[in-house]
Here is the input.
Amino acid sequence: MTVLTSTPTREARILGVGAHRPPRVIDNEEVCTWIESSDEWIQQRTGIKTRHWAAPDVSVVDMSEDAGAKALAAAGLTGSDVDAVVLATVSYPMQTPAGAAVVAHRLGATPAAAFDISAGCAGFCHGVALATDLVRAGSARNVLVIGAEKLSDFTDKHDRSTAFLFADGAGAVVVGQSTEVGIAPTVWGSDGGQADLIRSKFPWTDLRTGGPDVLATEAAQWPYLEQQGQSVFRWAVWQMAPVAQAALDAAGVTAEQIDVFVPHQANARIIDAMVKQLKLPESVHVARDIVDMGNTSAASIPLALERAMADGDAPSGGLALLIGYGAGLSYAAQVVRLP
Ligand SMILES: CC(C)(COP(=O)(O)OP(=O)(O)OC[C@H]1O[C@@H](n2cnc3c(N)ncnc32)[C@H](O)[C@@H]1OP(=O)(O)O)[C@@H](O)C(=O)NCCC(=O)NCCS
Here is the structure.
């Protein structure tokens, strides 16, 4: 029998983090010109004060390129060091080719493997899981993992359940080789039985064939994102803290040993509930990028991580607990060592 060869297993860690925050800031007052609401209600129910929306001519790929270039610079690497680019997004409007291939080309990473993944707001943590295993198995030296969204393209400004929530941005990390464990096992999963809780209003094909909702009203002419807010809220609050705890257990650490908690920035009240259930001590910094960035789906965790590091709230070499959850329903959590 012919013996196959493989590179010896090595460990993986995050080498650098980068972010792109679109310059245009939208405050709650502006949102209230679209929907009947108030600054007070939005802040109380979500914690959001402002969000950033990208300019019409700025794409998911543009934002990914910027965040990716910054992550590479932070890692002291260039595009030619990258063997794979993984782009987590739900709002890149090209069915094919993958945005990741264009990003790889722009960053000089060609011929890196490049592909997009769709796991809603859990997409970035799925990307980190894939990158870790690619590096550990020897399939890639360095993997650029990007979470990028232009949710403003898919947000119905007149929908009272989403207009105040969604926003744009991109965050990226480089996952590379390490002699010690820098990314602990990922705890992840999905529940397609609840797929209707957060979704596009209808499939793209309905635009051609005219599904039941299409063309009924102006808002129905575009597959905007819709959600059943209360059900999502309850699922996140009750089901996600045990997943975060399982990620701590899989890493062999306790809540006291974590330096920073970076949950998906969906809603400040969900974050508060998770902090309480996990019994995180005061010493753990809790990322609250949502206050001025809104909910940026797959981009929210790397954006919040970058902010915590830039502000000095996430010490170099410290431990961060990441958890993403959302459309699918899907979720993924892992403990990582900070670069
Ligand atoms: C969206 C969300 C903020 C809505 O808050 P909620 O408390 O569930 O709101 P409800 O739909 O139950 O409505 C409660 C009240 O607020 C009102 N309301 C709803 N939307 C409103 C808005 N945009 N502005 C002002 N009032 C609003 C309702 O009319 C209702 O009033 P009533 O009590 O007089 O009938 C909340 O459900 C949420 O954050 N869910 C999770 C969403 C999320 O994280 N999604 C992404 C996951 S990745």
Q: What stands out?
A: The mean pLDDT is 95. DSSP finds ten helices and 14 strands in the chain.
